[in-house]
Amino acid sequence: MENRDNIPKEEKKQKAINLLETMQINKTLLAEYQNFDIVPSFASLNFQNAWCDFGEEIKAKIKELEEKYNLLVYAVTKDITSYGELYNFLVVPDYAEDWQYLLTELGAGRFRVLAYVWNKTHDQYSEFGSIIVRAANGTIERIS
Fold it and tell me: Which residues pair with 77 in a beta bridge?
């Protein structure tokens, strides 16, 4: 990508921490992100949203996205849908003018966030855009 702002990673990370705090992420997960760069990851299990570890494949995908686009992934959610297995990477981009779109509070614990959605089943449908998440009980769940 061209015309990057080259925002330092530390500045992107502080912005990410502020976003996670706004969404009231579990304090232990937030501390792990702050201190050890462990990206909070969530999936619906038995109709309940919960923290999970997606393993090395998703860690590699995070690294690939961060290097390719010079962005910072600060959370991941997973959804199984009729059109594929989706991983939603919530991101802080390297473009300061895009930061106004990082998080919009919609009420009732819902937020519009900037994300890269990786359709693992049909990669050609993967894209950047806005998604709506619900923050509840210290977790994040994509709802639209």
Answer: 42, 88
Residue 92, sorted as left (phi over 0), alpha (psi -120 to 50) or beta, turns out to be beta
Give me the long-range contacts of 57-60 (CB less than 8 A, separation at least 24).
58/87
Q: Which helix (H) or strand (E) holds 71?
A: none
Q: What are phi and psi of 99, to 5 degrees?
A: -65, -25
Could you give the CA distance from residue 125 to residue 12 in angstroms, rounded to a whole number?
27
The count of other CB atoms within 10 Å of the CB of residue 59 is 16
φ, ψ at 84 (rounded to 5°): 140, 170
Mean pLDDT by groups of 10 residues along the chain of 144 residues: 79 98 96 96 76 91 97 96 95 95 96 98 97 95 93
Q: What is the CA radius of gyration of the chain?
A: 14
Q: Where are the domains of the chain?
A: 9-142
Instruction: Provide the sign of the torsion angle of the four alpha carbons 42, 89, 13, 67, taken in this order.
Output: positive
